[in-house]
Specification:
This protein is of the alpha+beta class and 212 residues long. It has 2 domains: 101 residues, no CATH class; 105 residues. Helix content is 50%, strand content 15%. The protein has a 3-stranded antiparallel sheet with strand order 1-3-2, covered by helices on one side.
Length: 212
């Protein structure tokens, strides 16, 4: 059975979703994080289905990633999904001596959200200078989003009537959309990155508070 599901920042919701299938006797056999593809295999019962836990880590070097996986293997957890660069790492409880959690303490568990928060905020900040350069160069003019008529450059367009107006209007609309809504896309990316970053930081602080 294959299910597609993407997760933005709530790792707990990933684990809860996977646990709901485990209780039904489905084992997570494979994960493609980049496409949200989760492949489940039906087993005899939930008692034979290993638990799955999720971490968030990104590594610059392959050696560091391999050391990270080896550490979990030594603790009885087998890596079943995730790569060095895509962040979400799925682990399956593979040994009888493995604990129910992949973290030794609650603070380490909470730090998953801190790393996710950094990722989203980094993306948001990264788009700001790009948007400023495009705006100052005239490629996008964010102020015209509030004055949509200014996105149309055809002389006398708004004084035309009938078929002449509609022909000129429909011809230029795709170009006007690129001028205005290309800038809007950058603005949305900045705001969404900031929103998800703040939300992840909220979950981090909440879990840290619960640790005290």
């Amino acid at each position: 059975m294959i299910k597609h599901r993407f997760f933005i920042n709530r790792i707990d919701s990933i684990e809860e979703w996977l646990e709901s299938y485990r209780r039904k006797g489905y084992r997570l056999a494979d994960v493609k994080v980049s496409t949200g593809r989760h492949e489940f295999v039906k087993t005899e019962g939930k008692d034979t289905v290993p638990k799955v836990r999720v971490d968030y880590r990104v590594f610059k070097k392959q050696e560091d990633f391999e050391d990270y996986l080896s550490l979990f293997e030594d603790c009885g957890w087998r890596h079943i999904g995730g790569t060095r660069t895509n962040g979400l790492q799925y682990f399956e409880q593979a040994a009888p001596f493995a604990s129910d959690e992949i973290f030794s303490d609650s603070i380490s568990k909470a730090k998953r959200y801190k790393r996710i928060s950094y990722m989203w905020l980094h993306l948001s900040v990264m788009y700001i200078p790009m948007a400023v350069v495009l705006h100052t160069s005239g490629a996008f003019d964010f102020t015209k989003l509030w004055h949509l008529k200014e996105l149309y450059y055809t002389p006398g367009l708004w004084n035309m009537e009938g078929m002449h107006f509609w022909r000129a209007f429909l011809f230029e609309t795709p170009f006007a959309a690129m001028r205005g809504f290309g800038g809007l896309l950058f603005l949305l990316l900045i705001l969404l990155g900031a929103w998800f970053g703040v939300r992840s930081l909220f979950w981090y602080l909440k879990e840290r508070k619960n640790c005290n």
